[in-house]
Amino acid sequence: MREIVILGSTGSIGVQALEIVAANPDKFRVVGLSAGSKNLELLVEQAKKYGVSVIGTTADGTKARDLAGEIQVIDGPKAATEIATIPCDIVLNAVTGSIGLGPTLAALGVGNKVALANKESLVAGGDLVMAYGRDQIIPVDSEHSALYQCFLSGKSSEVKQVVLTASGGPFRDRTDLSDVTLDQALAHPTWSMGQVVTINSATLMNKGLEIIEAHYLFDLAYSKIQAVIHPQSVVHSMVEFIDGSTIAQASPPNMKGPIAYALSGANRISKATAAIDWSKPNTWEFLPIDNNRFPAIDLARRCGELGGGLPAIFNAANEVAVDAFIAGKISFTQIVEIVEGSVQKLGGGSPIAIRDLSDVSALEKDARAMAVELIGDRK
After folding, report:
1. What is the pLDDT of residue 71?
2. Is residue 43 within 8 Å of residue 35, measured between CB atoms?
């Protein structure tokens, strides 16, 4: 019986993780849950259903305790960080955004392994996270879970490059992105995700973040990390070896497979997700990415290669720019412009070293302020 903690339990990844727990009561026991303030009722409902004795929330503590009854409630901005330190076999970090870095470091700091769905932890604080060792983290992103599995087919010295696949989002076949609306950007053709992740997928910013994430997870030079458009989203990523062989991990676009694989400690659970139906015709396409239409990937790669605090600036500015687009303050194409402007103004000269979480927080604060200033200029 594996004891697990789920951070971000009311989001898409968290809800699917609990469905896996419900389907495998002999394999998992949930010992802690946390979520933001928007779905307090659902968080309490989850805790009662799965017999969880402690929850964390950023919602009002009095209301939370009234709803929770005998369940212990930890409230406040660092609630997820406290929940992450509960002794367990693995902490699933499904928090969205760079606020997930603190809980990741807290979990690792007490010796908990982390099933990482919060890519921003590595983008903003990769050096800090990796100081605890790569064997303490199992990736949950479908692309990195795929690479994790494909790497088992050979030695690290035999790897020539890795290839991340991208659905291409709703605009892979659209040449003019100047008049994109919010509804169009949120109409992802393959995956059902939250607003921020869906917008990041539409700009391909998500793939840029994942390139930085892959660099840290697998200790790969950026020159060995490529990305291609794969509209069907069935092949989740590939590893090319020096003998010309390419090993791919394929399954229908469903996150339950990667979640179950991580929660079980990189073991396979029977029927975690549906398999490919080989009785029907299958056509898989792989297309190069147009970097002129989608400049986010090249920008991410440049920030990653320069290192230091630039990825943190890149990520924080993007969070502000995406919020501004959702609010109708900037156009779709201005998202990447805001991010690039923030990086250029704050990251000029030598890369800024990151020593601890407070350094990351300071850089992110500056990046958000700069992004807000640039957004104001464009208005």
Report:
1. 95
2. yes
Q: SS3 for 285?
A: coil
pLDDT score of 378: 72
What is the DSSP secondary structure assignment for residue 243, as one 8-state letter?
A: T
And the tokens for 42? 């659902």
| CB-CB contact of 63 with 71 (8 Å) | no
pLDDT at 159: 96
- Domain presence at residue 89: yes
DSSP labels for 192-225?
---HHHHHHHHHTHHHHHHHHHHHHHHT--GGGE
The rounded distance, in Å, linking the Cα atoms of 14 and 52 is 14
Fill in the DSSP letter of residue 20: H
Query: What SS3 class is residue 163?
Result: strand
Predicted pLDDT at 350: 60
Give first-to-last CA distance, the chain, whole Å. Answer: 55
- Cα dihedral value 260, 264, 265, 269, nearest 10: -70
Q: Which residues of the chain have pLDDT under 50?
A: none
Amino acid at the residue 212: I
CA nearest neighbour of 261 among 138, 152, 162, 143: 138
The domain tally of the chain equals: 2
Is residue 290 within a helix (H) or strand (E), and if so which, with residue range?
none
Buried b (16+ CB within 10 A) or exposed e, 253-263: bebbbbbbbbb
Q: 3-state class of 159 per DSSP?
A: strand
Q: What's the confidence (pLDDT) of residue 351?
A: 66
**CATH of residue 327:** 1.10.1740.10
State the residue range of the domain holding 321. 307-379
Phi, psi of 226 (to 5 degrees): -115, 170
